[in-house]
Amino acid sequence: MTAEDGALVDRFLDMMASEAGASQNTLSAYRNDLSAAASDLGRSLSDASADDLASLAPAWRHLANSTVARRLAAIRRFFDFLQDDGLRNDNPAASLARPRIERPLPRILDSEEVTAMFKAAEDRAASGEATALRNVALLELLYGSGLRATELVSLPRLAVRPGQPFLIIRGKGSKERLVPISGRAAEAVKRWTEVQGGDSKWLFPSRTKHLSRVRLFQILRSLAAEAGLAPERVSPHVLRHAFATHLLAGGADLRALQTLLGHADIGTTQIYTHVDSERLVKLVNERHPLARPR
Fold it and tell me: Given 134, 148, 210, 241, which residue is catalytic?
């Protein structure tokens, strides 16, 4: 990426942060995608023509459709910014094709598997060990409230207050939402804070800041192994999916689920109806008398 491109990308990301409320993770993804585009072009990205951008298609043929779609979205927004700010008179990205993306169904755990993870975590916490109590609190908040990994690890120390049955979460795009917190989760957090010690401002601190998403991922995989589950099946997002799917199966309203998950578009939430439909189809195929082999 040229020095001029770098300066323009910095301005673009400043705009995305201040006007669109983009998270740090989103900003990093935009920077990486624009850098990759400039590298594959082998020339200045900000001066590229429509034909230059079209030439990226062969270079990206080996990539997944989702990756290509994300990179093209970054390029489109970048050139929208250049045009809106009068830095270009045209928009060469306007005619870029949009690859078709089939949203994969999320991986989930059934309720028995989640129960097994809780049992493994609570068995360890029976010793009163601080990290074991912390892990129970993490698990309760992930599955009980459907938080994203970043939302969970960055909770302030006083996020869970006695007598307050909800959390105030600042999610994607810096949008705030209220998330209910169960009595079990509140009790688990109380037990953890009683042994936490220190003066960190984070509910789940590390040596320098708060617990990282990578460390959270490792903790969950360790708990999965102790529960007899394949560790590769478990992640923070899988537990968020389990929260949503199990709520929907229990009769939750789709709009309420959208609010709880912090989805801007209900279309994102509707994927859980497909997950539940698959479960029902499987149930009929396995249990209905006419589906049984003669």
Answer: 148
Catalytic residue status for 263: yes
- Give the largest CA-CA distance in the chain: 73
The structure tokens listed for 228 are 């007899």
Residues of the chain with CATH 1.10.443.10: 111-236
CATH number of 111-236: 1.10.443.10
DSSP 178: E
From the candidate CATH numbers 2.40.300, 1.10.150, 1.10.3470, 3.90.1150, the one assigned to the domain spanning 3-84:
1.10.150
Active site residue 30: no
Q: Is 272 a catalytic residue?
A: yes
Residue 120 and residue 115: Cα distance in Å, rounded? 9
pLDDT single digits (tens) 31-64: 999 999 999 998 899 999 999 998 988 888 888 8
240 is catalytic: yes
Q: Which of 172, 177, 191, 279 is catalytic?
A: 172
Output the pTM of the full model. 0.59
